C-alpha cells in the first residue's frame, strides 16, 4: 500500500474516532440520554432531587430547552461535516483536502464538548451546594457504570 494511502486512511480513521468520541462525551456517553435521546438527560435527573424549588425548576427547564436546541444544531453541523468528508473520500480527494475536512470536524467536536461543560456549569450554578452533593451521590446509581448498564447491588 502506498504511503499516501496509509496516511489518508490514518487521517480518516482518526477523524471518525475523534468525531464519535466527541459526540459520546458531549452527550454524556452511552445510556446517558443527553439531548432527549432516550434515557434521562442530566437536567431531568436534577428535577428529581429533593428540595427543588419552582424557580429552580423553571430555570432548569429553560436551560434544558436551550441546550437541546444548541446541541441539535451542533449535531446537524457535525453530520454535514461527516457527509462532506465521506463525499470527498469517495471522489478521491487528496490528503490536504481530507486533512482540512477532518480538522473542521475536530473543531466541531471540540465546540460540542465545550458547550456541554458550559451547560454543566450553568446547571450547578442553579443548584444549592446540598443539591449538588445529592446529585453527585445519586449519579453513579442513576447513570450506571458509564457503559449504559445500570449498577445493581452496589
Structural account:
- The structure is a single chain.
- This protein is mostly helical and 154 residues long.
- The chain has one domain (3-29, 41-139).
- The chain is 73% helix and 0% strand.
- It is built from five helices and no strands.
- α1 runs antiparallel to α3, α1 (3-26) packs parallel to α4 and α3 runs antiparallel to α4.
- The N and C termini lie far apart (51 Å).
Notable characteristics:
154 residues, mainly alpha, 5 helices, 0% strand, elongated
Secondary structure elements and pairings:
Elements: H1 3-26, H2 42-46, H3 54-90, H4 95-126, H5 129-143
Secondary-structure content class: mainly alpha
The largest sheet is: none
Rg, Cα atoms, Å = 19 Å
Q: How many β strands by DSSP?
A: 0
Taking the alpha carbons of the first and last residues, their distance comes to: 51 Å
Contiguous low-pLDDT stretches (5 residues minimum) are 27-40
Shape: elongated
SS field, number of helical segments: 5
How many domain units?
1
- Rounded mean pLDDT is 75
Give the percentage of residues in beta strands.
under 5%
Which H/E pattern describes the elements?
HHHHH
In percent, how helical is the residue content? over 70%
Amino acid at each position: 500500500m502506498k504511503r499516501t494511502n496509509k496516511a489518508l486512511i490514518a487521517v480518516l480513521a482518526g477523524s471518525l474516532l475523534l468525531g464519535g468520541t466527541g459526540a459520546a462525551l458531549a452527550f454524556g456517553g452511552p445510556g446517558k440520554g443527553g439531548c432527549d435521546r432516550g434515557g434521562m438527560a442530566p437536567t431531568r435527573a436534577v428535577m428529581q432531587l429533593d428540595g427543588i424549588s419552582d424557580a429552580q425548576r423553571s430555570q432548569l427547564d429553560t436551560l434544558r430547552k436551550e441546550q437541546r436546541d444548541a446541541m441539535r444544531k451542533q449535531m446537524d453541523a457535525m453530520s454535514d461535516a461527516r457527509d462532506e468528508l465521506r463525499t470527498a473520500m469517495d471522489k478521491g480527494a487528496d490528503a490536504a483536502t481530507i486533512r482540512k475536512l477532518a480538522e473542521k470536524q475536530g473543531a466541531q467536536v471540540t465546540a460540542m464538548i465545550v458547550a456541554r461543560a458550559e451547560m454543566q456549569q450553568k446547571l450547578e450554578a442553579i443548584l444549592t451546594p446540598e443539591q449538588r452533593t445529592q446529585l453527585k451521590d445519586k449519579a453513579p446509581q442513576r447513570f450506571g457504570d458509564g457503559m449504559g448498564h445500570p449498577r445493581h447491588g452496589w
